[in-house]
Amino acid sequence: MRVTVPEAVLFDMGGVLLESADMWDDSGFHKSYPKGLPDGTPVEWFLGLSRAILQAYEALPQPRPAMDPRPIIAAWLERLPAEPSPANVERWYAVLSDWEVRPLYSFVRPTLERLSEMGFRIGLISNTLMVSDSHRRLFREGGILNLFEFMVFSAEFGMNKPDPSIFRHALESMKLDPARAWYVGDKPHRDVCGAHSVGMTAVLVDSIYEGRTHDGPEYVPDLRIPDISALPDLLESLHNARAGMP
Q1: How many angstroms separate the Cα of 116 from the Cα of each of 42, 85, 120, 230?
Q2: Fewest CB atoms within 10 Å of the CB: 6, 74, 94, 204?
């Protein structure tokens, strides 16, 4: 495949812009909840609720559709015991959404700012279990929200990567030719396969999932980088090479 200079670069989130939080367990609890739970709620109950939601999600056929965890929250509130009222369910839904929020990597803002200054359009396609008000808040506080032209989160879209529909939705919303768009992710089985399925260039960030590139040719990325801070120089070099500059 001939790698072309893109018009836009679209990003995965977990493992690319911030630490992945795929496992909701006690080892990661303090990272997502440094101040603990509200009202002194027992951590054991919360971890049990979290495991129940993940188990239900993982039982869905792949590529997984979005899942509403509110019925599970309601059932677990009765175990607390607490009133499973709609307001209480929504309150705990909001608390659970913080599982997926981790601090941005230090290089993210300067990298995205430089890409924007270079004239590249920026987008995001991310799998999430919960709607992403918390991520938008994180991006706003981190000074990067306004750098994204478009963002789509699977919990809000209705289908997870690698299903092509979520990639097509982003491309159509941004009016992008897939041949002029790069997708940057850390998981070959979701990100590389999904990007390739719609004709995008797939850029793989080195991660614990890199062994999955052996699963088949569709898992092999077009480019590899250690992290996204390498992108501006890579794009500049590619542009200069295409222009015949030394």
Answers
A1: 44, 45, 5, 15
A2: 94
Give me the architecture of the 8-20+102-243 domain, per CATH.
Answer: 3-Layer(aba) Sandwich (3.40)
Supply the DSSP string of 143-193, one letter for each residue. T-GGG-SEEEEHHHHSB-TTSHHHHHHHHHHTT--GGGEEEEES-IIIIIH
Pairing of strands 181-185, 150-153: unpaired
Distance CA 171, CA 175 (A): 6
Is there a contact between 70 and 130 (Cβ–Cβ < 8 Å)?
Answer: no
Bridge partner residues of 152 (DSSP): 125
Residues 147 and 10: beta-carbon distance below 8 Å: no
Can you give the pLDDT at residue 160? 97
Among residues 129, 154, 136, 135, the alpha carbon closest in space to that of 73 is found at: 129
Q: How does pLDDT run across 35-44, given as a tens digit for each residue?
A: 999 999 999 9
pLDDT at 148: 98
Q: Give CA–CA dist 137/131, Å, rounded.
A: 12
- Cβ-count burial 192-209 (b if 16+ within 10 Å, e if not): bbbbbbbbbbbbbbebeb
At 77 the pLDDT is: 98
In tens, the pLDDT along 46-101 reads 999 999 999 999 999 988 999 999 999 999 999 999 999 999 999 999 999 999 99
**pTM for this prediction:** 0.94
Q: How far apart are alpha carbons 183 and 1 in whole angstroms?
A: 15
